[in-house]
Structures are given as structure tokens and as C-alpha cells.
Amino acid sequence: MLELIDINIDNAVAFRISGKVTEADMSVVLNSAKEKIERYGDIVIFEKIDSFEGVEVAAIVEEFKYLFDVGLSNIKKVAVLTDKKWLKYIAEIEAKIFKNIEVRCFALDKELQATMFLK
Q1: According to the model, what pLDDT value does residue 27 have?
Q2: Per-residue buried b or exposed e for 51-74, using 16+ beta carbons within 10 Å of the residue's own CB
Q3: How far is 6 from 77, CA to CA, in rounded Å?
């Protein structure tokens, strides 16, 4: 499940993940991203991962459609909050692949630091 949350940053797309990410979940987040890009130009992303049990294939297809349509150039920073080592490792790899996006990992109890990083 993906749930949009408010972190009091206007251009932030902020969400919490717990369990499996569905196509409907992904659509909600991607539509929020599109709206924020139209309104603010650049966006930042806040991902709080409480638990992760996978992603539906249809959700991945939705994400690829979004990337093909909108791209990544409007994403400036990503804060990933997780206590899972393997997710931290993935975020480090993403930071190396997407050099124009500043990606940082934070422990789940470091929401304030993650929010400050995105400002």
C-alpha cells in the first residue's frame, strides 16, 4: 500500500509504503507528481518505507509510462526513510545511476532530518 502524506513542503511528493505496492497506489503517487510538476516545476520526493512486500507488475508498467511521458528532469532530491539495509543499498545505487538527483537515506526515526534535506 502506498499512502500520500503531508510533510509541509509545497513541491514534495511524500508517501508511506507498507506492504505491496499496487497499480492503483502507483497511479495516485504519479498523478500527484504530475500535478506538483505542473504547479511548481521541480519536485522533491519523500519515501517512508515501513515495510515492503513487493510491487505489482502493473504498477511497474505505470511507472515506466510516467517516466516515458514526464521523465526525471523535474526531480531534484529524494529522501528515503527505511531501516532495511537492502533498501539503503538500492538507494545508493540509484544515486549513482541518476546523477542529477540527490538521493539520501535516513533511518525511520529521522523524519525531521529528511525533511530538512529536501528544503
Answers
A1: 93
A2: eeeebeeebeebbeebeeeeeeeb
A3: 16
